[in-house]
C-alpha cells in the first residue's frame, strides 16, 4: 500500500514523461506530496523487513536453507531500494537549494533532476529482480509447506517470474520491454494479495514448526 501510494499517488502525477521543465514545475508545486512519497517508500521498506523476518520463521520448518536464502534475496532488494531512495532527494536540492540555483541554469538543473528520477526507476527495477527471486522461492516453500494451498505457491512463483521478466527486460532490452503486455504485472498483485489474505484469515496454523513444538511443550509440562 505504501509503495503503491509512492509510485502511483505521489510521483506518478508529477513526472511528466521526458519533459524536464514540466516535471520540475510539478515537483516544486507539489513538494509536500513528493516528500510524502519518499516517506511512504521508507515505511514500505520497514514493513518489508518485518515481513521478511516473519516469512523466514514461518517457512523455516519447510526448508531452512531455502528459507534463509529467500530472506537474503529479499534483504538485498530492500537494501538496493533504500539506497535508490536517496536519488529522490536530488531533484529537491537541484531545483530549490541556493548553491545549485546560482551555479546552474534552469535547463541544466531540470535535466539533472529528471535524470535522477529516471535512474531511480532503474534502481527500482534492480531491486525487483531480487524481490522476484524471493517471490519464486516463497512460492516453492508455500507449495511444499502443506499448510498453504498449492495454488498460492503457484501464484507467488508466477509473480516472481513476472517481476524478473519485466525488470530484466526494462534494464537489458528496452525495445523488447515495450512489446510486453501492460498486464504482465497483474499476477504480482494477485499472488501477493492471495498470500497476505490467507495468512490474515487463517494465520500460520498447522505449520510443521508449530506441530513439532507443541508435543515438546506438553512433554515438558508432564515431567514438571
From TrEMBL:
Keywords: Membrane, Transmembrane, Transmembrane helix. The chain crosses the membrane at residues 38-59, 71-92, 124-143, 155-177, 189-207. The keyword Transmembrane applies. The keyword Transmembrane helix applies. This is DUF4386 domain-containing protein. It comes from Sphingomonas panacis.
